[in-house]
Design brief:
This protein is mainly alpha-helical. Helices cover about 60% and strands about 5% of the residues. Strands 1-4 form a two-stranded antiparallel ribbon. The chain has a two-stranded antiparallel sheet with strand order 2-3. The longest helix has 26 residues.
C-alpha cells in the first residue's frame, strides 16, 4: 500500500528533476497546459502543410503522415535534448518555397526538391555541430535582437487577425478591417473572453480561450452565415466547426522518395542555399524571440541551450526530406505556450505527443477552426512587445535598423526578409556614419548572405 501510494509522487519528482520544472519557476500542470496550448495554436499545420505540398505533386495523405511524424520527432527531441519549450513542425513559408518556387518555378520534380531539402539539412547540421550559431548570435547587436522579438510578436498577431478574417485585403488600401459579420463577431467575443481570462491570470487562459471560441463557432454556417454574407445572414452557409469522422489510416508512400543524386546538379544549388539560409535564420530568430518572451537566457545572456536547440532544428530539417515533407523548424506559435507559463522542455514533449494520435485521427482537426486560435495568437503579440522598451531609440544608427526589422517582419509576412533587411540596414548605417569598427566580422558575412538571399527571392 505504501509503495503504491508513493510511486506517483516519486515519478512526478523525477519528471520535475529531469526537466528542471521547479528550478524554472513552473509546475508540471502548468507545463502540460502550456504544451497543449502550443499544440492547439499550431495544429493547423497538420492539414495546411499537406494542402500546400499537394500542389507540388506530393500525395495529400502521404504529406499529412510525414507532417505528423516530423512534428512528433522534432518537438520531442527539442524537449528531451535541448530542454526548451519550443514546438518543431514543417515551416510555413518553407512549404510555399518548396511547392511554388522550387517545384513550379524551378520546374523540378517534387522528389528532386526533397533532395534539395535533405542537402540543405546536411549543411545546416554541420553549421550547428561546429557552433556557427555562436558567431552569428554574438555578431547581432542587442537592439536588433529586441526588434526581432517585437517583429515576430507583431507577425504572430497579424497571423491571428488574418485567420479570424478580421484583417482582409483591399485593392485600394491594401488591407482594412472587415465588416461585422458572424465570423468577426465570434472572433471579437472570443478575444474579449480570452483577454479577461489572461488579465485575471487564470491558469490555462489561452487554452480555455481556444476551447471557448471553438464552441461559440459551432453556430456559424448552421444558424447564421460564415462571413461570406453580411450580418445578419438568414441562410446557413459554410460551417467552420465540422465532424468529418474519426479515423483515417496513415499513408507512408512518400517516405524515401527523395532524389539525392539529381538534386546535386549545379542548377539546383541556389535553391539549396536559399532553403539553408531561410531555415537557419528562421530558427535563430525564433529562438531569440522566444527566449526574449520567456526570459529564457543562460548565464551569458544568450538564448538558453541555443546550440542544442539549433542542432535539434537541423535534425528536424534533415529528417523531413526522407519522410516526404518540406523542412521542419521551430515555431513562433511556441510563444503561446510560453505565455501560458511554460518554461521547460516538457512543453515541447507534450505538444509533440499531441501530434501522434493524428496519424489515425486527422479528421478530428476540423473541430478546431483557425478562428478559434486567433485570439490566443493576437495576445501572444502583446506579450512579446515588452522588449520594445529596451531598444535605444535615441541612437538612430541602431534604432533605424531595429525599426526596419521589426516592421518588415509582419509587413513582408516573412521573418527572414525582415531580419535580412534589418541586418543590411545596420551595416550600411554603421559604415556611412563612420562606425564601421562596431560591425563584427560575422555581421559582414551575414549581410552579404542576406543580400544574396533577397536577390534570389
Amino acid at each position: 500500500m505504501e509503495t503504491t501510494a508513493t510511486t506517483p509522487q516519486r515519478d512526478a519528482t523525477a519528471l520535475e528533476r529531469f526537466f528542471g520544472i521547479r528550478a524554472a519557476g513552473s509546475r508540471t500542470k502548468t507545463e502540460i497546459v502550456a504544451g497543449i496550448t502550443t499544440f492547439l495554436t499550431a495544429m493547423y499545420i497538420i492539414v495546411v502543410n499537406p494542402g500546400i505540398l499537394s500542389a507540388a505533386g506530393v500525395p495529400f495523405p502521404a504529406a499529412l503522415t510525414a507532417t505528423v511524424i516530423v512534428s512528433f520527432l522534432g518537438s520531442c527531441a527539442m524537449g528531451l535534448y535541448a530542454r526548451n519549450p519550443v514546438l518543431v513542425a514543417p515551416g510555413m513559408g518553407m512549404n510555399a518555397l518548396f511547392a511554388f518556387v522550387m517545384v513550379h518555378g524551378g520546374k523540378m520534380p517534387w522528389q528532386t526538391a526533397l533532395g534539395c531539402v535533405f542537402w540543405s539539412g546536411v549543411i545546416f547540421a554541420v553549421l550547428a555541430v561546429f557552433n556557427a550559431r555562436k558567431l552569428v548570435v554574438d555578431a547581432i547587436p542587442a537592439n536588433l535582437r529586441h526588434a526581432v522579438s517585437c517583429g515576430i510578436g507583431l507577425f504572430i498577431s497579424l497571423i491571428g487577425l488574418v485567420n479570424a478574417k478580421f484583417v482582409v485585403g483591399d485593392p485600394v488600401t491594401i488591407v482594412h478591417s472587415a465588416s461585422l459579420n458572424p465570423v468577426v463577431i465570434t472572433f471579437l467575443i472570443g478575444l474579449a473572453v480570452t483577454t479577461i481570462l489572461v488579465a485575471r491570470k487564470v491558469t490555462g487562459a489561452l487554452m480555455l480561450g481556444i476551447v471557448f471560441t471553438t464552441v461559440i463557432s459551432i453556430p456559424i454556417g448552421r444558424f447564421w452565415g460564415d462571413g461570406t454574407a453580411y450580418w445578419p445572414a438568414a441562410i446557413a452557409t459554410k460551417t467552420l466547426v465540422n465532424w468529418n469522422g474519426l479515423f483515417a489510416a496513415p499513408d507512408f508512400s512518400a517516405i524515401g522518395q527523395l532524389d539525392l543524386v539529381g538534386s546535386l546538379k549545379v542548377v539546383y544549388w541556389p535553391f539549396i542555399f536559399v532553403m539553408l539560409f531561410t531555415s537557419f535564420f528562421d530558427a535563430l530568430s525564433t529562438f531569440m524571440a522566444i527566449s526574449e518572451a520567456g526570459k529564457l537566457y543562460d548565464s551569458d545572456g544568450n538564448p538558453r541551450n541555443i546550440r542544442q536547440s539549433m542542432m535539434v532544428d537541423s535534425f528536424a530539417a534533415l529528417v523531413s526530406a526522407p519522410l516526404g515533407t518540406s523542412p521542419a523548424n521551430a515555431y513562433i506559435e511556441s510563444a503561446a505556450g510560453i505565455s501560458a507559463g511554460g518554461r521547460t522542455g516538457l512543453v515541447a514533449v507534450v505538444a509533440g505527443l499531441c501530434f501522434l494520435p493524428f496519424l489515425f485521427l486527422s479528421p478530428l482537426l476540423s473541430l478546431v477552426p483557425a478562428i478559434a486560435t486567433a485570439p490566443a495568437l493576437v495576445l501572444v503579440g502583446v506579450f512579446m512587445m515588452e522588449a520594445i522598451t529596451q531598444i535605444e531609440w535615441h541612437r538612430f544608427d541602431e534604432a533605424i535598423p531595429a525599426f526596419l526589422a521589426m516592421i518588415l517582419i509582419p509587413l513582408t509576412y516573412s521573418i527572414t526578409d525582415g531580419v535580412a533587411y534589418g541586418f543590411l540596414a545596420f551595416v550600411v548605417l554603421k559604415s556611412a556614419t563612420g562606425r564601421a569598427k562596431e560591425i563584427k566580422p560575422a555581421m559582414w558575412i551575414i549581410a552579404a548572405f542576406s543580400l544574396v538571399l533577397l536577390s534570389q527571392l
